[in-house]
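Design a sequence for this backbone.
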């Protein structure tokens, strides 16, 4: 026989009734909006002592909306005069906004695909930030090298000027020493000429004296 529960015992819990269709639809609509808010955070600002919050729209987009998005992108690029090549912050900003809109449209249709695109966007931004950091560091390095080269150039020019001044001073000293040498040589030549003349005169005098002495000492021949 089947056992009966004692009196006063509450009946065993049965299956939970499913939520109403309205609650399920609200929950289903709330989930994409939460994902969108996580991907693209709402804007918040204050105006006239009131706090305003603007969330990303969860309305699905059509093919016509995509075509209009492309037309708006081309128009904004032209209006803001974005450069077609090279580094252009304006072009990057506009394409980033366009990519965010594509992520929003994709997330509404498929949340997983939208999250994957979000990862791709974040990876691209990280790569661009790394390249920007590398570019800024290389520019700073180039500036430091340019300033160092300018400083070295200034020091070298100063050193060249000092060496040229030293060269001129040495040339002046050499010229003075040459002049002194020429004066000394001239004076010595004059002194040597005087000495030679004096010596010649003395020799001639001594020869004459010698000749006179020889003549004076010669004996007289006796008469036969």
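Sequence:
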């Amino acid at each position: 026989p089947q056992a009966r529960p004692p009196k006063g015992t509450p009946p065993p819990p049965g299956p939970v009734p499913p939520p109403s269709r309205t609650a399920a639809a609200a929950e289903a609509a709330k989930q994409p909006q939460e994902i969108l808010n996580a991907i693209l955070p709402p804007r918040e600002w204050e105006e006239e002592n009131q706090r305003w919050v603007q969330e990303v729209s969860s309305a699905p987009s059509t093919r016509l909306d995509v075509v209009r998005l492309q037309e708006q992108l081309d128009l904004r690029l032209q209006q803001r005069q974005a450069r077609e090549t090279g580094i252009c912050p304006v072009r990057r900003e506009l394409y980033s906004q366009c990519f965010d809109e594509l992520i929003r449209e994709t997330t509404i249709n498929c949340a997983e695909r939208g999250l994957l695109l979000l990862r791709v966007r974040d990876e691209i931004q990280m790569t661009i930030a790394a390249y920007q950091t590398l570019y800024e560091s290389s520019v700073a390095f180039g500036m430091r090298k340019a300033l160092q080269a300018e400083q070295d150039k200034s020091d070298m020019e100063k050193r060249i000027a000092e060496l040229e001044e030293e060269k001129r001073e040495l040339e002046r000293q050499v010229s003075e020493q040459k002049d002194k040498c020429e004066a000394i040589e001239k004076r010595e030549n004059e002194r040597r000429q005087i000495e030679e003349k004096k010596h010649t005169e003395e020799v001639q005098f001594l020869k004459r004296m010698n000749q006179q002495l020889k003549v004076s000492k010669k004996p007289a021949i006796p008469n036969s």
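Strands lie at 43-47, 50-54.
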